[in-house]
Amino acid sequence: MSKRRKKDSKETKKLKFEIHDDFDAEVNEGVASSQLEIFRISQDEKPGVIFTRQHQIVQVHYCREPEIKGYVICNIEEGSEDCVLCQIGRQRQKKLLFPIVSLETEDIEVLSVSNSLRPNALLPQIQNVLESEKKCATFFSHEDYKYTLSTQSLKKDHRRRVVSVIKSFDKAWKAGEVDLSSVYQRISNLALANCTEIKKMLDLKGIDPFSDDD
Ligand SMILES: [Zn+2]
Fold first, then answer.
1. Residue 185 per-residue DSSP state
2. Contact 168, 32 (CB under 8 A)
3. How far is the centre of ligand 1, averaged over its atoms, from the C-alpha of 214 (Å)?
4. Distance CA 29, CA 16 (A)
5. 27 occurs within a structural domain
6. Integer Cα distance of 127 and 96 in angstroms
7. Cα–Cα distance between 202 and 7 in angstroms, integer?
8. CB-CB contact of 130 with 21 (8 Å)
9. Distance from Cα 33 to the centre of ligand 1, integer Å
10. What residues are paired with 101 via a beta bridge?
11. How many Cβ atoms are within 10 Å of 189's Cβ, its own excluded?
């Protein structure tokens, strides 16, 4: 049994990747994920393997507008001085993005978690799963603001495939090829200001986001 411990002390701004001991077994090349998808949790149980407490943090706004329909990364986060969505008072939410192995697709997906620490929220339950040293399949479901997580040990062949996916992800991550936040849209302030409903809010609030105030 190999008990090598992968500890990379190299400082990266976003995420230091660390593989848990019991995954550090057989190494095979896995399938590199090209387009990352969100690990979507609904009322039906969905299986996945959480394998690291490392994560990326992003600030997003939810946009109901039909042209957008979904989360958009706050433009201040993107280095802009201001953000049209912040300016119209659209709520900004913090999301913690964890890589997860989906056992449906057997590929890396992105588990997006709010920072709520309510007992039925996702984050404290993920922390519990990560605390148990044995890695396992976790079944996620979600109903009425409550997340339910249950775990089951992984069978050998599943485990082998999971290890392979993690190794391949780790390699891509260390090469700087992975951005978990790519699951969310990035839309320029100009494009946002051209959406009908956002434009209307800017008008109502008397804001011209592109005025030179000198
Ligand atoms: Zn913003």
1. B
2. yes
3. 23
4. 21
5. no
6. 12
7. 49
8. no
9. 29
10. 49, 108
11. 19
Write out pLDDT tens, residues 165-204: 999 999 999 998 999 999 999 999 999 999 999 999 999 9
Residue 212 domain-assigned (yes or no): no
CA of 201 to the centre of ligand 1 (A): 14
- Looking from the CA of 127 toward its CB, the CA atoms found within 13 Å total 13
Q: How far is residue 32's CA from residue 167's CA, in Å, rounded to a whole number?
A: 10
Q: What is the pLDDT of residues 158-167, one digit of tens each?
A: 999 999 999 9
Tokens for 20, please give them.
């848990």
Q: CA 78 → CA 18, 85, 189, distances in Å? A: 26, 13, 11
Contact 43, 145 (CB under 8 A): no
Is 56 in contact with 17 (CB distance < 8 Å)?
no
Q: Give the number of domains in the chain.
A: 1
Burial status of residue 15 (CB atoms within 10 A of its CB: 0-12, 13-18, 19 or more): middle
How remote is the CA of residue 110 from the centroid of ligand 1, in Å? 21
pTM: 0.81
Taking a C-beta distance cutoff of 8 angstroms, is the pair 179, 40 a contact?
no
- Is 162 a member of any domain? yes
Cα of 65 from ligand 1 centre, angstroms: 16
Residue 75 Cα to ligand 1 middle (Å): 5
Range of the domain at 88: 39-204
For residue 166, tell me if it sits in a domain: yes
Q: pLDDT tens digits for 22-70? A: 444 333 333 334 589 999 999 999 999 999 988 999 999 999 999 899 9
